């Protein structure tokens, strides 16, 4: 160790500054990403609409495109088929048992719809839709949730004006305040409760694979 | 070779039959002490006389056929189809802590893709000084680290919120695996691209995407990105499996598995969370009043008794019994695990098999004697922050029953006098 700890400290600080600066320690590996490459892969849409391409689509065009590409899983009216996701409905169900979480009842940002449809749908044929088709599908999903009227046209210009019903329905993780103080206590080891009774049995419900009489009933 | 794995999934009734047969065996073995010689010893067996397999019979070995039931299983009614679905690690049949890749749970959002190393590209862009593209070969030229971490799906135990539902540790707690990863720290790669352009890093994020059709994009705060996140290309010493993101995946220690993006293809430095599908419509936790928590990344402390359990009943009758299980915490290392045989009235501290590692599975044992009476078995983990694994009642009191994710409650197995075990809830 240095006999002059202050010198070691200064050296460490200098190293830290260098590491933080633009010319951080470089291995010289990789090559510059070209603008065309970044444009091809960086397709994310931010909640404030950054990243949206120019374009537009109306509800009736959306009805058609949705019928072609989406309805086989999501239903003609975006209500969902079988176990596939419902995209419409469910309003007012979030505080009930088995809430129905749809774009209309749950999703806080419209940007998420555009981003996801554009990058991952149709399922099994992703990234095949034009920007105008994605606008149209998004408009139709909004219409299916009674968020816009049937004469609505969605575009990059009015995108951020749409208000999502559950936009204020989220809080940032608060476990550190609401749970951890109570649960960071020495646990009981003896005489922790007087009686213990079985209140529910999985074998009675019988939905486990491999059991005789496999349950084939659906579940939320 | 695949024939080894075509065995009919063992049913609960089959376990019962097995348990009865084993009990009978125990009686016979007891009787053997009276004098009847064991033919397995007194008669020359075929394996002691002829040849076994030559080397190279299996250039890449698979488990012996007698272990063919130790495989991943799925629950078909959970999802609409199997390309966007999940299966479960057979935790009831494993021991130690390392999960073999071949039976480590899978979660895909549009299927496991086959991506050659030669076709692999990793882009870093956004608020960086030098947007870069790396090849797979580039990744192997950065300094490497080795770490063991658990990866738990946020939905592990998610089917149990409203009550005891699935009868087996594999199904209630099998959305987890634990591997030794080899990779490059994300910090190294971000610094190679240069973070000067990002300015103040305290309010910056990264957005990470995979190369598959779902891309599974997620936002992660820069503080975590620069802390302990890895871009891994090996697990348990060998290349990642296709189903775990070959050739490279993100490892986000202690945080929910959905963030561990597979087939990692792009890392963008951003000034805000993207609020992608996977961090808004999914992986958000709805409370009883209808509001939902978002950004619930950390996996709280949790434990599970893997044996005895519904798929691993006691087959040996009264006497010495090893109660075994796993514990883990996204906050750090496990410091203690307690086991109760009476549904939580009283607890005994279990033995930890090795020094616990932070954000990795810890194996615990309670070496005990079973009197043949019923037990209500529970395990309770404590981590280095003093966090004590809660009961289901404690969780429900804060969160209600609609959270889906982050159910880290104490689990109860009802072990009956015959040795059979069942998933139950207790008062």
Structure description:
- The complex is a heterodimer of chains A (220) and B (427).
- With 220 residues, chain A is mainly alpha-helical.
- Chain A has 2 domains: 1-42, no CATH class; 45-186, Cytochrome Bc1 Complex, Chain D, domain 2 (Orthogonal Bundle), CATH 1.10.760.10.
- Chain A is 34% helix and 7% strand.
- Chain A has helices at 5-20, 35-41, 59-69, 71-74, 110-120, 131-144, 175-178, 180-183, 202-205; strands spanning 31-32, 56-58, 153-155, 170-172, 198-201.
- In chain A, strands 2-3 form a two-stranded antiparallel sheet.
- In chain A, helix 3 packs across helix 6.
- Chain B has 7 helices and 24 strands.
- In chain B, a hairpin with a 7-residue loop joins strand 8 (205-210) and strand 9.
- The model of chain B is unreliable at 1-32 (pLDDT under 50).
- Chains A and B meet through strand 1, helix 2, helix 5, strand 4 and helix 8 of A and strand 1, strand 4, strand 5, helix 5 and strand 13 of B.
Topology:
The complex is a heterodimer of chains A (220) and B (427).
Chain A: H1 5-20, E1 31-32, H2 35-41, E2 56-58, H3 59-69, H4 71-74, H5 110-120, H6 131-144, E3 153-155, E4 170-172, H7 175-178, H8 180-183, E5 198-201, H9 202-205
Antiparallel strand pairs in A: 2-3
Helix pairs in contact in A: 3-6, 5-6
Chain B: H1 12-32, H2 39-42, E1 73-74, E2 85-88, E3 107-108, E4 121-126, E5 132-135, H3 136-139, E6 145-152, H4 169-173, E7 176-185, H5 186-193, E8 205-210, E9 218-221, H6 222-225, E10 230-235, E11 238-239, E12 249-251, E13 264-270, E14 285-286, E15 292-294, E16 302-307, E17 319-328, E18 334-340, E19 348-349, E20 351-352, E21 362-370, E22 375-383, H7 392-399, E23 412-415, E24 421-426
Parallel strand pairs in B: 4-13
Antiparallel strand pairs in B: 1-2, 2-3, 4-5, 6-7, 7-10, 8-9, 8-13, 10-11, 10-12, 14-15, 16-17, 17-21, 18-19, 18-22, 20-21, 22-23, 23-24
| Unreliable residue runs of chain B | 1-32
Average pLDDT over all residues of chain B: 93
* N- to C-terminal distance of chain B: 47 Å
The profile of the biggest β sheet of chain B is: 5 strands, mixed
User: How many strands, which pairing sense, and closed or not: the largest β-sheet of chain A?
Assistant: 2 strands, antiparallel
In helices, the fraction of residues of chain B equals: 10-25%
Which outline of chain A best applies? extended
Structural class of chain A: mainly alpha
Q: Stretches of chain A where pLDDT falls below 50 for ≥5 residues?
A: 1-23, 211-220
Spatial gap, N to C terminus of chain A: 63 Å
How large is the share of residues in beta strands of chain B? 25-35%
Put simply, the count of helices of chain B is 7
Oligomeric category: heterodimer
Mean pLDDT across residues of chain A = 88
The radius of gyration over CA of chain B amounts to 24 Å
